[in-house]
Amino acid sequence: MDRKLELLRNVPLFSELGTRELAELGSLVDEIDVGPGKVLCEQGRSGDEFFVIVDGQVRVDRDGREVATLGPGQFLGEVALVDEGPRMATATTTTDGRLLVIGHREFHSLMDRFPSVETCVLRSLAKRVRQLDPEAAY
Fold first, then answer.
1. I want to staple 70 with a disulfide (CB 3.0 to 4.6 A). Which of 30, 58, 107, 127 is the partner?
2. Are the C-beta atoms of 129 and 136 separated by less than 8 Å?
3. Where are the beta strands (DSSP E) in 2-96?
4. Is the pTM here over 0.70, yes or no?
5. Quick one: pLDDT at residue 22?
6. What are the pLDDT digits (tens) for 40-70?
7. β-bridge partners, 60
C-alpha cells in the first residue's frame, strides 16, 4: 500500500491531498498490468475509469491523429469522470505497463466525502484548459 500511496502522491492531481484522503483513495484504486495495444478509452464513448500510469507508455489520439504520449506519473480519463460526457480521445498502451485505475462510482464517492479531492480535480482541469487553449481560459 505504501508504494501505491507514494505513486498517488506524485500525481499532480492528488499532490495536495492530505494523508487521510490519500489513504482513502489508495483503498479505492486497483493496480493492473497491461500489454501493448490495450485500448484504455475510446474517443466518443462513455468513460467509467480514471487511469494513472505507473510504468509504460500510452499514446493519445484525437480524431485519428496522435496528440500526446504519456508516461509514468501522468494520468488520463478524469474529464469524462467529472462531466460524465464522452471521452475526448482514444488512449492505447504502446508498451507493457502497470496502471492504477479508479472507477466512476469510487471517484465520485471520494469527492463527495472529501471536498478537497474535488478542489484538486477542478484545479487540475483548469490547468489543462489553460495549457490546451489559452484563448479559451478567460
1. 58
2. yes
3. 30-34, 39-41, 49-55, 58-62, 65-70, 75-76, 90-93
4. yes
5. 86
6. 999 999 888 889 898 999 999 999 999 999 9
7. 68, 91
